[in-house]
Amino acid sequence: MEMIYSDKQRTLMNMWRADKLKRLNLLEGSVRSGKTWISLVLWAFWISCMPREKNYLMVAKTLTSLRRNCLDLLQELVGVKYFTYSLPKKEARLFGRLVYLEGVNDARAESKIRGMTLQGAYCDELTLFTEDFFSMLLSRLSEKKAKLFGTTNPDSPNHWLKKNYIDRKDKLDMLVERFLIDDNPYLDKEYVENLKKEYSGVFYDRFIKGLWVLAEGLIYPMFNEKEHVVREVPEAGRYFISIDYGTLNPCSMGLWCLNGKQAIRIVEYYHSGRDTQRQLTDEEYYQALEKLAGERYIEYVVVDPSAASFITCIQKHRKFRVRKAKNEVVNGIRVTTTMLQNKNILFHESCRNTIKEFGLYRWDDKAAEDRVIKENDHAMDDIRYFCNTILKDQINPRQNYSR
User: Fold this and answer.
1) Nearest Cα to 388, choosing from 333, 346, 347?
2) What pLDDT is recorded for position 368?
3) pLDDT digits (tens, 9 = 90+) for 269-326
4) Both 154 and 301 in a single domain?
5) Cα-Cα-Cα-Cα dihedral of 393, 398, 399, 403, to 10°?
6) In what order do the strands lie in the sheet with 322-324?
7) What InterPro entries does this protein map onto (predicted)?
């Protein structure tokens, strides 16, 4: 197929043709900047010129994200004739070369690559890897002219990838190319402007401006009572409940009414065992859940997966279907940020604990990695569960909020 390149992409292709790529080749920067696309083109061209009998590896946080971000796109680029893959077998064939597939979330992933001798490796979203895994991977790239190709969005300036590799690139055999969304001339201008509006705070700095910056201050600075708090309750819609379970710590529940692409938290339940000096049982919390639901049909109750005893209690009563929440904190915050920016989530004025927490929920700016201060976060957690587990798939099932 005919390839059309942006200026930065063409520069990289010229480096490949002139054999000027480095041992480590990292493309970093904003979302939708074309870095993943050109990294896969480079990977395919490079691997087609390398020995067939050698070993190659493609790795991402999970096999699912590897397929979504890379494998399907690579198959589009070169065609099924030249690239096929099997996730169950964790293997692919690219221009006849055997390529192993791994996800770094697999606890056995590091031990699996420990015995490999690799000619090449492709890494998607390197900031999501552990440094131990990455160090082990580099030690496996021991064949002559072995290369690593990687992509990432920026993270904290204290991240191991920034401090130990990017900042030391001149001391290493390493190429670092920065891509920005405005470097991609093939995106619709209206789409780019809308995408920029969907990010704010640290996520705007990282995923639009391509900056390695600390997460600090309020986590949801875009929350505004005038814009996000309503007085009216919808007459009808689809209903869900999200729960952050606590014993001594507060237990927060929210009842959501979803209409189209907007969900309103119409009522909340909030109980602090520590503040009231009364610790409730699972059965008492279940009674609170039933009262919150009233006569409404609840499609799902979304609960933190660590609340095993309470999930069992809900299931025992056979009234509600339980969904275990997707509990990735930073990615969930990112999704919730987009929902707030787009006003996909609103809050009834009666949800006073929720409104209070929005003004108190902060990043821990003393932490070396992105971390929230674990205070005033219980309604924030159950809102994140709802947005990341239910709402994002209802609003735009194909949107990749993590990139």
Assistant:
1) 333
2) 77
3) 999 877 777 888 999 999 999 999 999 999 999 999 999 999 999 999 999 999 999 9
4) no
5) 120
6) 229-230, 345-348, 262-271, 251-259, 238-244, 298-303, 322-324
7) P-loop_NTPase (IPR027417), Phage_terminase_lsu (IPR006437), Viral_DNA_packaging_terminase (IPR052380)
331: its two tokens: 């990615």
Q: Tell me, yes or no, whether 235 and 158 share the same domain.
A: no
Largest CA distance in the chain: 71
For residue range 149-168, what is the model confidence (pLDDT) as tens digits?
A: 999 999 999 999 999 999 99
- Global pTM value: 0.80
Q: Domain count of the chain?
A: 2
> Cα 130 to the chain's mean position, in Å?
15
Tell me which residue range forms the domain holding 89: 7-192
The confidence score (pLDDT) of residue 399 equals 52
Q: Per DSSP, which regions of 95-237 are E strands?
A: 97-103, 118-123, 147-152, 174-179, 229-230
The tokens describing 7, both together, are 């200026």
**Cβ contacts of residue 260 below 8 Å, gap of 6+?**
none
For residues 124-135, give the mean pLDDT. 94
Residue indicated by tokens 């056979």: 318
Contact by Cβ (8 Å): 200, 337 = yes
